[in-house]
Amino acid sequence: MSTLLPLSIRRLLALAAVSAAGVLFAQEREYSFADDTIETLQKYKVATEAKDTKLALTILDGLLAKVPADSYDAAFILVQKAQLYVQTGEYAKAIEPMERGVRLSDSKTPTYFEDRQSKELYFFLFQLYFQEANNTKNPTLIATYYDKAQKSMERWFVLVPESSADAQMYYAQLLISKALLDPNKPDKPLLEKSIVEIDKGMLLATRPKDTFYLLKLVCLQQLDRNLESAELMELVVKQKPDTSTYWQQLAALYLSLGQDLRAIVSIERAQAHGFMNTPKDNYNLLGIYFNAGQFEQASELLEKHLKAGTIESDQKNWELLALSYQQLGRPMKAIEALKNGTKVFPKAGQLELQIANAYTALEKPQDALQHVQAAIAKGNLSKPFQAYLSLSYTAYQLKKFDIALEAAKKAAEFPEGAKDGNSMVKALEGIMQDREARKNKS
Questions:
Q1: What mean pLDDT, rounded, does the chain reach?
Q2: On the CB side of 92, how many CA atoms lie within 13 Å of its CA?
Q3: Among 141, 314, 374, 438, which residue is least crowded by beta carbons within 10 Å?
Q4: Reported confidence tier of residue 14, pLDDT bands at 50, 70, 90
Q5: What end-to-end distance do the CA atoms of the chain give, in Å?
Q6: Reduced to 3 states, what is the DSSP secondary structure of residue 270?
């Protein structure tokens, strides 16, 4: 989860006008500073106006040592000290004095600080805790900060007449972070509570921020409520159709649900908005079509992208296109695809060999011979012995025994082709000897 920024710093610092705050607190809560405190705070005010933070802290520490530990003066000084640390960006140091100040205030009846000030301080404490939790890698310390942040926020809820959308969002973010502290053991009841808080926040907003939907999506996915996740994501893409990541998430959700056709439709909807149209996206879409058994659409789409250059034009993709047409019982389209592939990869003997095999299956040995010879001439074959055996068989069919014998001998030179190659050599030599013998008799 992302770190919360101290959004209420400005409002908190607005409380730092010493003389005004002192009078305000005294009037509304009937608490007042000791005379020595008032005199010393005047020196503190001079130091802060001079932006001498070091002197200001020294004055506060000295004053804190003199006043009674449970006094109104002590509570106020502690908060002022925290505010000084905030001003210098030392947020971690601000936690301890602010904690002590609000705890001291809450221990009194009535509290030292009126609800308005307490509310500000608790909300800021919540933010400080959450921020520090994100700044450490110590799991125990993180858990401690999360617990403190939750308590601070729950105290804030008591002090405010009605929550706000932003407050609900921050609170839900905290709860989710806490629930997923151990990713292998998510706290499901806490995730359920997070959803409740998210829903409250969305009701408080005229137009809920995207963050609400994304936080809820995290919860639903962690709770294995994937169908609800997809429904929520459909709502998000309807409201924000110009955000590519939302389309990607929607397609991924449908794939996780095994709803390939919906995933296909989602990607095609995204492409209509100008997203998910990279070569990788196009290839993934084809893969989904194949997995869904939609071979006709997959083949046509693959051919279209290969010709347009909107999918990576590698040799394997041309072979895949040919295989697709073969599965559809369209051998001539398969051969056409392989021939187009040879135009892109003119030195790819493997493509020529596949063309030859396709012609062999169609019982067109003359065409097969032409392409198997081209395959051997070009090279770059995964299993050369197979090409020589194919040439030998094809030439034999065409009664071109010399070519067949030479190819069989070449095949026999490879360990994998030795058995079949030698058998062909023996058979062909026998045929040729018989042919020679017949010639001699005539």
A1: 90
A2: 6
A3: 438
A4: very low
A5: 94
A6: helix
Give the pLDDT mean for 338-355. Answer: 95
**Cα separation, 52 vs 181, whole angstroms:** 41
Look up the CATH number of domain 354-442: 1.25.40.10
Q: Which of 32, 35, 41, 44 is nearest to 71 (CA)?
A: 32
Interval 54-82 mean pLDDT:
96
Q: Which residue, chain included where needed, has tokens 């292998």? A: 184
Q: Which two tokens stand for residue 356?
A: 């030859």
Which residues, in sequence order, are CB contacts of 289 under 8 Å at separation 6+? 264, 295, 297, 298, 301
Distance (Å, whole) CA 281 – CA 46: 64
Q: What is the 3-state secondary structure (H, E, C) of 242-287?
A: CCHHHHHHHHHHHHHCCCHHHHHHHHHHHHHCCCCCCHHHHHHHHH
- d(C-alpha 228, C-alpha 388), whole Å: 58
Hey, what are 341's tokens?
């592939």
Q: Are the beta carbons of 335 and 364 closer than 8 angstroms?
A: no
For residue 14, give the DSSP letter. G
CATH class of 1-130: mainly alpha
Residues contacting 366, CB < 8 A, separation 6+:
398
Dihedral sign for Cα atoms in the order 146, 147, 152, 154: positive
Query: Measured between alpha carbons, how far is 170 from 353 in angstroms, rounded to an integer?
Result: 63
Distance CA 369, CA 192 (A): 69
Sign of CA dihedral 262, 268, 270, 276: positive
Put residue 380 in one of left, alpha, beta given phi > 0 → left and psi -120 to 50 → alpha.
left
In whole angstroms, what is the distance from residue 347 CA to residue 356 CA?
15
Q: Yes or no: is domain 278-346 CATH 1.25.40.10?
A: yes
State the Cα–Cα distance between residues 427 and 420, nearest whole angstrom. Answer: 11
Instruction: Write out the two tokens for 391.
Output: 């040439």
Model pLDDT, residue 13: 36
CB 171 within 8 Å of CB 197: yes
Token output for 194: 């997070």
pLDDT at 4 > cutoff 70: no
* Max Cα–Cα distance, the chain, nearest Å: 141
Task: Calculate mean pLDDT across residues 347-374.
Answer: 96
- Model confidence at 24, pLDDT cuts 50, 70, 90, reads very low
Same fold, 278-346 and 354-442: yes
Q: With bands split at pLDDT 50, 70 and 90, how would you rate the model's confidence at 30?
A: confident
| Domain limits, the chain | 1-130, 278-346, 354-442
